[in-house]
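Quick one, tokens below. Sequence please?
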């Protein structure tokens, strides 16, 4: 279809128009000078006129026909089927319409495939979404830190968001760029600190809490005080809560820098 569209554009090329500027001169020419033979049409294929004079009266008076209107009527009378087909093609551009429809369908299919097929089997933020179980219960107080820490892990491992920027202190800092880079490196250093806690430090602390609890249960019958029995466990729990509060608060307060 693209080839046909190009062919018809070539046929309507101004360089191939009949070089006259009046209807009378156009129709006075022999037919072989105002038509041509083409392989896709059984009869003579008319060539458009190069130009017609502008009629000011027809422009000011909408009811009066212009030279172009009169010439089209003559073409329609002489070549009725051909004129109809060529005018439909020129005005409605079926090839262009088909291209637009195919493009729209392609976009629709790509959106459908991307959102509903590809992302069903390969969803975004898979590691973060895994922290919100759908088939078992999990308290909100446990989900909040798990989700936020999963975001930091994703930011560091998938987005490379915590790469440090090397600062050249040998050059003068004319535009305050060094201060900006130093601040950004401090932020990234904090992100890496939180990443280390989220990746291993927190799990290690929770493991120590479970070990301290198991040890406290073993010492039940030894006549120890509550402080002696559960003191170590409570100390570790307090440390865990303080660390979580510090890091989670920082994440929320500095969320604007976590873009990629």
């Amino acid at each position: 279809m693209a080839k046909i569209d190009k062919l018809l554009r070539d046929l309507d090329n101004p360089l191939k128009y009949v070089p006259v500027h009046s209807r009378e001169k156009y129709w006075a020419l022999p037919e072989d000078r105002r038509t041509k033979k083409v392989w896709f049409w059984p009869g003579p294929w008319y060539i458009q006129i190069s130009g017609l004079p502008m009629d000011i009266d027809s422009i000011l008076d909408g009811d009066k026909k212009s030279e172009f209107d009169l010439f089209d009527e003559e073409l329609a009378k002489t070549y009725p089927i051909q004129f109809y087909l060529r005018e439909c093609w020129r005005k409605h551009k079926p090839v262009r319409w088909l291209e637009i429809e195919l493009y729209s369908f392609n976009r629709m299919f790509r959106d459908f495939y991307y959102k509903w097929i590809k992302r069903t089997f390969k969803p975004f933020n898979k590691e973060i979404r895994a922290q919100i179980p759908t088939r078992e219960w999990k308290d909100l107080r446990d989900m909040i830190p798990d989700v936020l820490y999963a975001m930091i892990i994703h930011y560091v491992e998938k987005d490379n968001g915590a790469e440090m920027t090397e600062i050249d202190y040998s050059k003068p800092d004319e535009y305050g760029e060094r201060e900006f880079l130093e601040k950004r490196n401090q932020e990234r250093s904090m992100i890496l600190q939180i990443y280390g806690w989220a990746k291993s430090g927190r799990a290690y602390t929770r493991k120590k809490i479970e070990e301290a609890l198991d040890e406290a249960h073993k010492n039940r019958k030894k006549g120890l005080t509550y402080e002696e029995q559960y003191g170590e466990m409570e100390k570790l729990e307090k440390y865990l809560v303080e660390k979580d509060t510090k890091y989670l608060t920082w994440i929320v307060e500095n969320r604007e820098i976590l873009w990629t």
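The chain is about 65% helix and 0% strand. Residues 42 and 150 are 72 Å apart (CA to CA).
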